[in-house]
Design goal:
single chain, about 300 residues, alpha+beta, OB fold (Dihydrolipoamide Acetyltransferase, E2P), 2 domains, five-stranded antiparallel sheet, binds zinc ion
Length: about 300
């Protein structure tokens, strides 16, 4: 099920050249006009809108057209997809889920298992009906889902409204940092950033964001400190995932090249304590580590 497409073939071609500047806007199937041609954001195939009996809008190919990119070929076949414009999606619920420490306990594993079985039965039921009615648009529930749908998220304008929210209020990709810094005063966000420093003594991981052309007087670099408190097991897991083992004299370790870009969620606030090193004060925010869902580290070669 394809949910987003470009309004013109020019937009598609432009999107293939340069993603960082002036990304053309995607049109979601809900907003598409009847009978109008749209273009697949992965392969440029000519599409039109169709609406299922249950009111789910999606794009299908014009006669004689075919998808040619692995992602849209896969998506076209899928009866379930994730979207920020799903009626059930809410930034508040999304973050509540991400910061739910309970979700890592044993009991929730059982619960997830039970849900998975119900889902499996439901899917089997759906495929028996095998009509377009089985199409479902589910709300995102993890950072990984957001990143896997990367082109869709990036293709949307960072500040576009959806259901009274802006995408930058949810996730801030590197090229969107300029829309957030230096006026960011804190709150719940996912940031695309780079592992910077690992403090084995105080159990925090530091990440950094780089702003290419900051306004005069503002910094290029912003730092995010994620404190693990008493969560030693989780600290050790992420420290050894993102940083190498060798410790230098100051007790810090080097980031691994395998994970150059990570996505870190937190309820950020200014770090007034741990923001001064090498003789300089740095723009630093802090958040507490509550659950492993807060960090998503795709391997560099997958991005
Ligand atoms: Zn396609």
């Amino acid at each position: 099920m394809i949910l987003d497409a470009y309004a013109s073939i020019d937009d598609y071609q432009q999107s293939q050249k340069n993603i960082s500047e002036n990304t053309p806007r995607l049109v979601s199937a809900v907003d598409a006009e009847q009978g109008q041609a749209y273009y697949c954001c992965y392969c440029g195939a000519r599409l039109f809108r169709r609406t299922s009996d249950k009111g789910v809008s999606y794009y299908v190919c014009f006669g004689g057209e075919k998808h040619s990119h692995p992602i849209c070929i896969r998506k076209e076949k899928a009866s379930t997809t994730y979207a920020v414009n799903s009626p059930e999606f809410s930034v508040v619920l999304f973050f509540n889920h991400l910061f739910d420490s309970e979700s890592e306990t044993e009991s929730s594993k059982t619960r997830e298992k039970a849900t998975a079985i119900i889902k499996f039965e439901k899917d089997a039921e759906d495929s028996e009906n095998s009509s377009q009615d089985s199409f479902r648009v589910l709300p995102y529930s993890s950072i990984k889902q957001l990143i896997d749908d990367d082109i869709k998220i990036r293709g949307r304008n960072a500040v576009i409204d959806y259901d009274r929210n802006k995408l930058v209020d949810l996730i801030v990709f590197g090229e969107w940092l300029k829309d957030v810094w230096p006026s960011f005063s804190g709150g719940k966000r996912i940031f695309e950033c780079i592992p910077n420093y690992c403090d084995l003594g105080r159990w925090y991981l530091q990440f950094r964001c780089y702003l290419k052309n900051p306004p005069i007087g503002a910094s290029n670099y912003y730092y995010l400190n994620l404190y693990f408190g008493q969560k030693e097991k989780q600290f050790n897991r992420f420290a050894s995932l993102l940083f190498s083992n060798e410790t230098n004299d100051s007790g810090s370790t080097r980031p691994k090249n395998k994970y150059r870009t990570v996505f870190v969620a937190g309820d950020w606030e200014t770090d007034n304590i741990n923001n001064y090193w090498a003789g300089t004060k740095h723009e630093t925010f802090r958040a507490d580590f509550v659950s492993s869902r807060q960090i998503y580290a795709p391997k560099t070669n997958l991005l």
